[in-house]
Amino acid sequence: MDTGLKDRVAIVAASSKGIGRAAAFALAAEGANLAICARDPGALDETAAQIRRQFQVEVFAEPLDVSDDARVRAFADAAHHRFGRIDICVTNAGGPPAKPFAETTMEEWDRAWQLNLRSIVSFAHAVLPRMRERRWGRLITITSVAVKQPVPELVLSNSVRAGVLGLVRSLATQYGPDNITVNNVGPGYTATERIRNLAEASAKARGITAAEYEANLAKDIPLRRLASPEEVADAIVWLASERASYITGQTILVDGGTYRGL
Ligand SMILES: NC(=O)c1ccc[n+]([C@@H]2O[C@H](COP(=O)([O-])OP(=O)(O)OC[C@H]3O[C@@H](n4cnc5c(N)ncnc54)[C@H](OP(=O)(O)O)[C@@H]3O)[C@@H](O)[C@H]2O)c1
Prior knowledge:
This protein is α/β, with parallel strands linked by helices. α1 packs across α8 (229-240), α4 (106-134) runs parallel beside α5 and α6 crosses α7. The protein has a 7-stranded parallel sheet, sandwiched between helices. The chain has helices at 18-29, 41-55, 69-83, 106-134, 155-175, 193-206, 210-219, 229-240; strands spanning 9-12, 33-38, 59-63, 88-91, 137-142, 180-187, 251-254. The chain is built from 8 helices and 7 strands. It folds into 2 domains: 9-189 and 228-254, NAD(P)-binding Rossmann-like Domain (Rossmann fold, 3-Layer(aba) Sandwich); 191-226, no CATH class. β2, α2 and β3 form a beta-alpha-beta unit. It binds NADP nicotinamide-adenine-dinucleotide phosphate. NADP nicotinamide-adenine-dinucleotide phosphate is lined by residues 14-20, 37-40, 43, 65-67, 92-95, 115, 142, 144, 187, 189-190, 192-195.
């Protein structure tokens, strides 16, 4: 399948680890040049160096916090200056803390909105005018299966990510006439470093092994296992590709069947 991604330019946010990193690798494997970011410069530089070595594409890497609007805009400007175009933008970030509603603070609500919704607005503001000029673009948000099926104890994520769907739908309508598609990818449980660490901590607290804890998680997933980050990345590559040119305003769940609705 020709994805048509060779020589395209993709921003992949929060991409030194996990799903973002897998998306950056998968786009580079298709020949796209990249602009990547994350807060820790060490892991980010290592990821950039690995991608350059493995795929011989250009990678521009800048350490930043995606909730810093000015830094995000400056990063997008610098990427545009470096490559002369931005075709694809994959938004990503860490997730808000898991806790019952009564224990959440107003500071955590502010932080969740900044991290998981406002950061997408920053990227969208920065990249959509550039895509519009070239009459081609792909904006892809990474959220969670929680946008379709709220997860108990993830009230911050459940609430703020629902707003992302409103944004995705609105932008898909507004930018469709410019040949820009806007879609959302909702991962279910995915075996990233973060989930492995969480599994280890939760397993320890319950006196079981991490493998047993993961097996318990998998019991409720029809495919009976966690996703790999690469499986989520494949959906992102497809949405970014020429092969998904008539798909917009959609949420694609990569959740092994976790969401039970129609
Ligand atoms: N893994 C799952 O099971 C799962 C399921 C559903 C949804 N999700 C969501 O998918 C997203 C990615 O999850 P993941 O499992 O891939 O996480 P991960 O393995 O912890 O990777 C997160 C990446 O984002 C970067 N990052 C985090 N906060 C950032 C910030 N404020 N600014 C810039 N970069 C930031 C991290 O680098 P630095 O720390 O150096 O910044 C790292 O590169 C999260 O929003 C998560 O809630 C994950």
